[in-house]
Specification:
This protein is of the alpha+beta class and 283 residues long. It folds into 2 domains: 5-234, Bira Bifunctional Protein, Domain 2 (BirA Bifunctional Protein, domain 2, 2-Layer Sandwich); 241-282, SH3 type barrels (Roll). The chain has 5 helices and 15 strands. The longest helix has 22 residues, at 201-222. It is globular. The N and C termini lie far apart (40 Å).
Length: 283
């Protein structure tokens, strides 16, 4: 059972943003209609809460109950949030925490998804920078799912998968430090406000989803190669010295790019190239 305080629900239809408010368990429509650029493939539906244990947990429960594609759940506060590999995560006041649901039929789509999201996240946040700062490339993607600002973590992505009957689903959780960098022992974190006035969490989430929709269409038309190429242009350069820490392993070498499945290629001192499926990259 999830404890939450519903603030309002936003239904993002194909051509308009429809605001509704939860009152006593019912959700009567309000007449406010805001024109938006059309989303062709997914009916994105935003629900915004004042507080939740975890946006991904609620999104996951809805997925298991048969919720269709496009559900987006955003919370202004999370009190049981988690990051990759079960780590805890602190939302922080004014920061963004949201999760969304998509279904998929094959592993090719799932392999592409983290890179689609990373590129979409990078470009959405880049869009909120003032003109002169856009050329500075202060953001950098780090394999597999982090966005850095001046070498410190600004945002993270967590992808979880499961089944609802015959359907396979992915719940994607995204956290962005907009207003403040949480204090977490042993971690160096950054926030968007260090570079520019940050957007609100709702506006930022909408921009990320809009950017993702564009990249989904690029992937469908041009394949994963262009997605990987764009990701590489935003990431730590090929040849960067790094270490990869696994649960029971620690390897050092140079970043050699990505293979067709999106695995990190690590060139060891011996010249051997090792494909890495999972692990923490230390730059």
């Amino acid at each position: 059972m999830f404890l939450y305080i519903p603030l309002r629900a936003i239904s993002l239809a194909v051509e308009h943003l429809v605001y509704t408010e939860r009152v006593g368990g019912s959700i009567p429509s309000l007449p406010t209609m805001i024109p938006l650029k059309m989303f062709k493939n997914v009916n994105w539906r935003f629900e915004i809460y004042e507080a939740l244990a975890s946006t991904s947990d609620l999104c996951r429960s809805r997925a298991e109950a048969g919720e269709p594609d496009g559900l987006v759940i955003l919370a202004k506060e999370q009190y049981a949030a988690r990051g990759s590999r079960g780590r805890g995560w602190t939302t922080g006041k004014g920061n963004l925490s949201f999760s969304f649901l998509m279904h998929f039929v094959d592993d090719e789509w799932l392999q592409a998804l983290p890179f689609l999201i990373s590129v979409a996240l990078y470009e959405a946040l880049q869009g909120f920078l003032p003109g002169p700062q856009k050329a500075e490339k202060c953001f950098q993607l780090k394999w597999p799912n982090d966005l850095l600002l001046d070498g410190r973590k600004l945002a993270g992505i967590l992808v979880e998968t499961g089944y609802s009957g015959p359907k396979r689903w992915a719940v994607v959780g995204i956290g962005v430090n907009l207003q403040e960098a949480p204090v977490i022992e042993g971690r160096e974190l950054a926030c968007f406000a260090e570079k520019a006035p940050p957007p609100t969490s709702e506006i930022c989430a909408h921009a990320i989803i809009e950017s993702l929709q564009r990249w989904l269409q690029v992937w469908q038309k041009e394949g994963v190669r262009v997605v990987h190429q764009t990701w590489l242009s935003y990431a730590h350069p090929v040849g960067t010295r790094l270490a990869v820490k696994g649960r029971d392993t620690y390897m050092t070498g140079m970043f050699g790019g990505l293979d067709e499945q999106g695995r990190l290629l690590l060139t060891l001192e011996s010249g051997e190239v090792v494909p890495v499926v999972t692990g923490d990259v230390l730059l």
